[in-house]
Each structure stands twice: as C-alpha cells, then as structure tokens.
C-alpha cells in the first residue's frame, strides 16, 4: 500500500499566494459545494474521477480536497494506483481550511 502525500492548509495557502501552478480539485458532491469552496478550486465529484481521468494530467500537481480529508485521501490513493505521482491530500479538508480563517469562495457553475 502506498503512502498518501499530504499538504497542510497553510502550505496550500502559501502556494496559492505565490501563484504556484497547482490544481485544487474539490471532490465533494455538488450539494456540499454550496457551503463554500477554496477559491480557484475545480469541482470534480469523487465518483466521476475514473470517468474523467483524461482531464487530470499526470505531470500536474494535484491537491485533492473534501470536507474532512478522508474521501480525498481515497481519491489520492486511486490516482496513485493509476500512475499519478504529484497528488496531495489536503489534511483536514475544507473544515481545516475554514478553521484557519482562509478565504472561502462560491463554487463555479460549470
């Protein structure tokens, strides 16, 4: 079993401030997104990931986010099994992001 790489909310906030090229993928269900999303994050519900793998480039750095970090850890594990190396789980998920007082945006309607 491979270990999942994790990133702290403070690290992600710094990366976003520096405009580092990372893709933040929010895997929560559409109804959950109404509570807010990390600005710039892309909504990609967890159950659609296998169908939409071609949209996720293996050379990109992907940060997976859910409410608490449990489902996004599973998504990271799945992506690692598919050959993705630069996949990180946001430790504590949106709960940790909000508890740190970081900016929360509205989901983009796609």
Descriptors:
globular, 4 helices, Oxidized Rhodanese, domain 1, 5 strands, 29% helix, alpha/beta
Which helices and strands appear, and what pairs or packs with what?
Layout: E1 5-7, H1 9-17, E2 23-26, H2 30-33, E3 42-43, E4 62-65, H3 70-81, E5 87-90, H4 93-99
Parallel strand pairs: 1-5, 2-3, 2-4, 4-5
Distance linking N and C termini: 35 Å
- Just name the CATH architecture: 3-Layer(aba) Sandwich
User: Which spans of ≥5 residues are poorly predicted at pLDDT below 50?
Assistant: none
| Helix share bin | 25-40%
Number of helices: 4
Taken together, the total number of domains comes to 1
**CATH superfamily assignment?**
Rhodanese-like domain
What summary fits the major beta sheet? 5 strands, parallel
CATH fold name, please?
A: Oxidized Rhodanese, domain 1
Q: Over all CA atoms, what is the radius of gyration?
A: 13 Å
Q: Provide the β-strand percentage band.
A: 15-25%
Order of strands across the main sheet? 1-5-4-2-3
- What is the H-and-E element order? EHEHEEHEH
Shape annotation:
globular
Tell me the name of the CATH class: Alpha Beta
Give an account of the 3D structure:
The chain contains 4 helices and 5 strands. It has 110 residues and is of the alpha/beta class. It has a single domain (5-99), classed as Rhodanese-like domain (Oxidized Rhodanese, domain 1). The protein has a 5-stranded parallel sheet with strand order 1-5-4-2-3. The longest helix has 12 residues, at 70-81. It is globular, with a radius of gyration of 13 Å. The model has no long low-confidence stretch (mean pLDDT 92).
